Amino acid sequence: MTAHEPPDGPGTEAYDAVVLAGGAARRLGGADKPGVRVGGRALLDRVLAACAGARTTVVVADPRPTARPVLWAREEPPGGGPVAALDAGLRRTTAPYVVVLSADLPFLAEETVRRLLDTLRGSAGASEGSPAAPSAAGASGGSTPAPDPAEGVLVTDPGGRDQPLVAAYRADALRRELAWLGAGHGGTAGLPLRRLVGALRLTRITDPVASFDCDTWDDIAAARARIREHDHVLDEWISAVKDELGIDLDVDTRELLDLARDAAHNVARPAAPLTTFLVGYAAAKAGGGPEAVAEAARKATALALGWAGEAGTDASDAKPGSPDTRPGSPDTRPGSADTRPGSPDTRPGSADTGSGASDSASDAG
């Protein structure tokens, strides 16, 4: 798939994303870790969903099918390590900020990516907008310059360890340090990531959930178990279905659940799934989008409530003691004759006592 370039949000600078997905996964026995499914979605697809706001997303690995469009890159030589992989991915980006992620983060969310970027951008604003602070020299009237802006923001794990592959960086700072390392070591292959990020001005945020990565099969089992917890399962299921169907649409889940409830309660239980399907179909015909879904759901909800209202009106109209005027229906009120053709009048004193009575009278004659 090709790169996706969403429009920049108001008041924000664009960012690109580089996802490193070409590791050997030795602790998984060499398994295809980016393709391992957690909650019905490949680990790589889960990470791509978290950085969906990137103008360009580059995945450093051999190409594979993905739920979202990306560009592909490969480090030289293949298997040359994370610094070489980051160097290869960064060469395909142009935005001033770049989010760098590993492909094994099952719980990374867009909110964490936004926090990283907001913190990085905020450090620049604070540096540029703050006056110089008075220096210790005081008496000489000197001042110290405002602190330089951060060049990177990392997530730390619950143990306080830096996670340089759950981070946002200034692209120019990364390029500067990559060039310096490459010149000093004859290339970037085989270099540890700490040699790169250790030269940057960094700040940190904590996010114990987002920093959880899947290095072992026990980690994957733990991630799968957590996703099936009651508080997470519905959101995870909806996300998995949207990925599987290629749908990139945010809808009001509560509104659709309320519609299903109203259809089941006021019409019939099977009406719930059928009605929500028809709402989706109608929204697609109307051009799609959350507004189209909301409008179709509103109409269907009103119809379901009106359906129940009609039933209530019919019940109140059937007043006690009123005759049943349906064709072929007897009137069973006391003292009322059934005047249907061929029906006997069984009231006391009536001459017609049925066919048996007529025969007896004839015999007597």
UniProtKB/TrEMBL annotation:
Record domain MobA-like NTP transferase: where: 17-183
Keyword vocabulary terms for this entry: Cytoplasm, GTP-binding, Magnesium, Metal-binding, Molybdenum cofactor biosynthesis, Nucleotide-binding, Transferase
This protein's record includes keyword Phosphoprotein: no
InterPro entries in the cross-refs: DUF6457, MobA-like_NTP_Trfase, Molybde_CF_guanTrfase, Nucleotide-diphossugar_trans
Chain intervals for the UniProt region annotation (Disordered): 123-159, 310-365
Compositionally biased residues, Low complexity: 123-145, 349-365
Gene3D superfamilies: Spore Coat Polysaccharide Biosynthesis Protein SpsA, Chain A (3.90.550.10)
Residue stretches making up the DUF6457 domain: 230-310
Alphabetized PANTHER family for the sequence: MOLYBDENUM COFACTOR GUANYLYLTRANSFERASE (PTHR19136)
Protein name stated in the entry: DUF6457 domain-containing protein
